[in-house]
User: Fold this.
Amino acid sequence: MTVARLQRRLAEFASARDWGQYHTPKNLAAALSVEAAELVEIFQWLTPEESARVMSRPDMAHRVEDEVADVFAYLLQFCEVLGVDALQALSSKVDRNEKRFPTTGTGHSME
Assistant:
């Protein structure tokens, strides 16, 4: 399955239900934020150790996978509406971060 095929499938799903009218950049960004918050909620009160083991619990793993899917779906729909190539955007961002944050042997983050 490719990103383009998933975007097409999501667009067809929304179109068949006449949801396109609601899939504005503003609404999709808000929905993406809500779904990301639902993912955070799963981990909110877990210790670092518990959070590292969350996928070993089938009930929790299912919730995490569902929320990841929701976040990814809204992100792909957002990119589709605005014409953003998500893979190219990520690749360009990694390129910029490699220049901004040269290897130092310490931790790293993507900003």
